[in-house]
Amino acid sequence: MTVYIKNIFEEAGDMTQFTLRFFKELLKPVFQWREFSRQCFAVGYKTLPLITITGFIMGLVLTIQSRPTLLKFGAESWLPSMVSLSLIREIAPVITALICAGKIASGIGAELGSMKVTEQIDAMEVSAVNPYKYLVVTRILATTLMVPLLVIYADFVGIYGGYIGYNIHGNMTLFRYFSDVLEHLEFLDLFPAIIKTFFFGFFIGLIGCYKGFNASNGTASVGIAANEAVVAASLSIFIIDMLAVQLTDLFF
Amino acid sequence: METQPVIVIKDLYKTFGENEVLKGINLSVNKGENLVILGRSGSGKSVTIKCLVGLVKADKGEIKIFDEEVSALNDDDLNNMRVNIGFMFQNGALYDSMSVRQNLKFALKHHTRNLAEPEIESKIMEALENVGLAESIDKMPSELSGGMKKRIALARAIIIKPKIILYDEPTSGLDTITSREISELILSVQEKYKASSIIITHDMACAKTTGNRILILNEGEITAEGSYEELEKSKDEWVHSFFI
């Protein structure tokens, strides 16, 4: 038990050092623009099909599931605003971030873990390239920037899914549906929800890089790094979400 | 060969946990010399050369490259020093997301900035021709055989025209013929670039072909030193066991 607690504290210390180094290296020239854009493409564009499908299903299912309850209270007309608010404030950010944790954090963990095991990171260092700056900074920045964009995209697709779900039993034009949604949306529905997604993205990248960069030697460690990255990133998303909701509740 | 030392290691110690890997290593490499370090697996050969380039931090001791103490260098100075060193890793360590061309370009661009594209391209071709693999320029590492990977790794190490080349088990995992080709390649590269080299190996044929001088490392300590012929005649049972 003592060893387990000691390991947790040691890992927390290592993680803090890793995070501090990220900020230190971020401010140092030269920034690796090419690698950063490559990572943005890998994180953003290549996750788009997955986000499209899940976002659409989220909106569709939420609408179909909520309709019977709202019908009981004669509040069917609230369906577009209720679905869109649920999606924007909570469901789309969390589900999108979880998908990214599964796809991106594990991908980064496995990629960097494999590079560590096959001495590619050492080769980079010997080539006078700072591997932390080249591999870690670019990936964390890419996830920090791309996850919020993916969430905004998932919001739109989810609302569209809601529109399709609504029209299974109802009849409403797309224009009226979106007008209804926008009529009930406020700045405070959007702002905290978007802000927390930057933290989701940051931690997805950070945890993926940390686990990969610290993979021990041997091929089994690559799988372990990928697995631990998904678990830790998913857990961090729920913790950040809980803190964000508490803070929003406190200040707004 | 000049007797001016380019690498000097004095009393080098390194411990991993409770495992004492290096126990006071002393060695020097002269300009233009090929020094072979022989030893069984786990004797501390790879750790020694990783300490040289700052990949592993030594616990105690002195490492001087071109009269500069490696442990005293900051990150920028260490990188400036690394510009003079080519490193061939045991399994090649080619970047598997990059083609052969990109692997070489990556090493070159980060060592020597402000090179024009045509100049980069001609240097890549020159390095590949030196290792006899110019036709593999657009292949991915996954499409290369073990021997080809080692050759490309050598091309990547020499593209920066280093003054020192470190080879970590250059012939391990290769068949006899390919091992001989790699050993001859190391020799031709050394003659062409006039570089000083440390070759870590347990392949006696490679040691014989490439080494001007051989050190034998046993459990973190240097137990014998001399030319191939001198060591072959050694009466020491441990030293002799390498030549059987």
Automatic annotation (TrEMBL), chain A:
Main subcellular location: membrane
InterPro entries: ABC_MlaE_roteobac, Permease_MalE
Endpoints of the signal sequence: none
Presence of the UniProt keyword Protein biosynthesis in the record: no
A cellular component annotation (GO) from this entry: ATP-binding cassette (ABC) transporter complex
Molecular-function annotations in GO: phospholipid transporter activity
Domain of life the protein comes from: Bacteria
Keyword Signal appears in the UniProt entry: no
Keywords: Membrane, Transmembrane, Transmembrane helix, Transport
Family: Belongs to the MlaE permease family.
Protein name: Phospholipid/cholesterol/gamma-HCH transport system permease protein
Record organism: Flavobacterium fluvii
TrEMBL record, chain B:
PROSITE patterns linked: ABC_TRANSPORTER_1 (PS00211), ABC_TRANSPORTER_2 (PS50893)
Residue intervals of the ABC transporter domain: 7-244
Record GO terms (molecular function): ATP binding; ATP hydrolysis activity
Matches recorded under SUPFAM superfamilies: P-loop containing nucleoside triphosphate hydrolases
Highest taxon above the source species: Bacteria
Keyword terms: ATP-binding, Nucleotide-binding, Transport
Entry-linked InterPro entries: AAA+_ATPase, ABC_transporter-like_ATP-bd, ABC_transporter-like_CS, P-loop_NTPase
Protein name: Phospholipid/cholesterol/gamma-HCH transport system ATP-binding protein
Source species of the chain: Flavobacterium fluvii
